[in-house]
Amino acid sequence: MTVAELAGWSLVVLAIGFALWLLVHPWHERRRQRRGAAARLTPAQQQALADIAPGLPPLTPLLRDRLADRVAAFLADTRFHGAGGFVMDEACRVAIAAQACLLRLQPDADGYPAVRDIVVYPDAFWVHHEAPDELGLVDDEPDLLAGEAWDAGRVVLSWSDVQAALEGDPVNVVVHEFAHQLDFDRPDTTGAPPMDDYREWSTVMREHFDDLRETGSPVLDPYGSENPAEFFAVAVETYVQNGADLARAHPDLYRLLDAYFGLGTAGPSRSLDSGAGSPG
Ligand SMILES: [Zn+2]
User: Fold this and answer.
1) What angle do helix axes 228-241 and 199-215 make, rounded to 10 degrees?
2) If I label 249, which of 116, 183, 204, 218 is the partner at 20 to 30 A Cα–Cα?
3) Taking phi first (over 0 means left), then psi (-120 to 50 degrees means alpha), and beta for anything else, what does residue 100 get?
4) Residues near 37 by beta carbon (within 8 Å), at least 6 away in sequence
5) DSSP class of 89
6) CA of 61 to the centre of ligand 1 (A)
7) Which residues cross the membrane (predicted)?
């Protein structure tokens, strides 16, 4: 076989492979959604969820039940991988799934369809990015990270930081990285989860982002002043970890986030039993 014939055949094989992928891919997607929707927590997973409940915001009975359903679906649909010597177990999977699903407790939310893989290191991990930043510059220095969200559907986490959030640390790396995943859901918007009408969201978020850059905040991490995407992730972290202080310091920002996520993190009187606004 000549080189030209070989190249021709390679193209034919590639084309057949792509056609098969197109046929199989939608089937795989439907199967993945069905599996998650039908999933129920095992007794061991229920126990793991009960064990970490004191580290989560207090939830109404309705939202607690919904969280269990969302966690079951998330566990059925997501692959977890230990890295750097970390050995994954059920308690770890449930702790990550539960914190991620806190952001998807709206009645019609459908989890994180794009997230396929979660990689967990025992501790903060070094990352060396060779991709240029928004200014076209490549940083030579590696970064020490507690978490990282890839728009290809992968989230990387440090287990010690996941645990710290459950023990009350104001930083919640799972919530932060999954807020980025919600942001990735609409490539044409930045600093917002998917929704039908962005007008109020844009006004309130822009005002508080500018305030954080100019004067700082008693509760929001200054890291949020990096850009609108980081502001959104930091604001959601604060809403989950420290809702009462956020409501006192920035009441309209709290109201905006609570209207979307519906957890009532500022206190029981603010809980929305009927769930939150539509995620769009
Ligand atoms: Zn971030």
Assistant:
1) 90
2) 183
3) alpha
4) 73
5) -
6) 31
7) 6-24
CA 105 to chain centre: 13
Distance 176 CA to ligand 1 centre (A): 6
d(CA 265, CA 235): 13
pLDDT tens track for 179-202: 999 999 888 889 999 999 999 999
Q: What domains can be seen in the chain, in order of their start residue?
A: 41-270 (3.40.390.10)
Q: How far apart are CA 130 and CA 18, in angstroms?
A: 30
Residue keyed to tokens 């202080």? 245
Residue 67: closest CA among 94, 88, 90 = 94
**Per residue in 240-265, pLDDT tens?**
999 999 999 999 999 999 999 999 99
Cβ neighbours, 10 Å, residue 126: 11
Please give the Cα distance from 92 to 80 (Å, whole number).
Answer: 9
Residue 89 tokens, joined: 């177990």
Spatial contact of 277 and 109, defined as CB atoms under 8 Å apart: no
